[in-house]
Amino acid sequence: MNMQIALLAAVVGYLFGSISFARIVNRIVAPDEQITGIEVETRSKEKFQVETVGGTSISMKLGAKYGGLTALLDMLKVALPTLAFRVGYPGAPYFLITAAMGLIGHNWPIYHRFKGGRGLSAIYGGLLVIDFVGSLITSIVGMVLGVAVIKDVFISYLAGLWLMIPWLWFRTHDPAHLAYVVFVNIIFLVAMIPEIRMMQDLKRRGMQDDMMTAMEATPMTRGIKKIAQRFGLYQDPR
């Protein structure tokens, strides 16, 4: 591996990942709206704050349309430089470095005092280039596993990424691919520690309905909920 190219791939990935499309969309669409420190109230009237700045905060303040647009732009900011290095250096793992550093940039952007999002859109932006089919299959299987089998919406949110670990290994048998997918899973879990603690607390107190309310702060979970309801796997409590 050429270390200069590897460094270039890391820097490009990080700088592109640091672009905060949530802030850009917010500034263009509703410059007077604050997208930090948003409070979410659960069914039992408990409140918690969404501290991240990303598609979730935009969705909560400006609606699903702009939240989806932000998520798409966050995917593209990682996918495009990843694709460029994959095409420019075929057979070399530089594109994996670009994708991994795109996630780091998204979560800890240098342009915004290292305050970013959790990184799910950034991860899938890279995965769609690395293994398009695998990213779709594992996300669907993970959703079904979480909602229909384990009956835990939070697991459905995470399981697709977990399943990418064995998928990429069996597809490639390449240590670089394995290192990449393990790395992004670890980074995502580290970024999600506040939400994981909150979910564990709600589950321990038997507040399953509040867990869904809390998770609905994310566009992906709203999508999971709609699909689950369509197939009779989840019903809103009366």
List the helices and strands and how they pair.
Elements: H1 3-17, H2 21-29, E1 38-41, E2 47-50, H3 55-62, H4 64-88, H5 94-107, H6 120-130, H7 132-150, H8 153-172, H9 175-191, H10 193-204, H11 208-215, H12 219-230
Antiparallel strand pairs: 1-2
Helix pairs in contact: 1-4, 1-5, 2-3, 3-4, 4-5, 4-6, 5-6, 5-9, 6-7, 7-8, 8-9, 8-12
Describe this structure in words.
- The chain is mostly helical.
- It has one domain.
- It has helices at residues 3-17, 21-29, 55-62, 64-88, 94-107, 120-130, 132-150, 153-172, 175-191, 193-204, 208-215, 219-230, and strands spanning 38-41, 47-50.
- It has a two-stranded antiparallel ribbon.
- The longest helix is centred in the first third of the chain and has 25 residues, at 64-88.
- The model has no long low-confidence stretch (mean pLDDT 83).
Q: If strands are numbered along the chain, what order do they take across the biggest sheet? A: 1-2
Estimate percent helicity: over 70%
Radius of gyration: 18 Å
Secondary-structure class:
mainly alpha
The helix/strand order is HHEEHHHHHHHHHH
Q: What is the CA-CA span between the terminal residues?
A: 59 Å
% residues in beta strands: under 5%
Mean pLDDT: 83
- Which runs of at least 5 residues are low in confidence (pLDDT < 50)? none
Individual helix count: 12
Total domain modules: 1
The description of the largest β-sheet is: 2 strands, antiparallel
Number of strands: 2
> What's the overall geometry?
globular
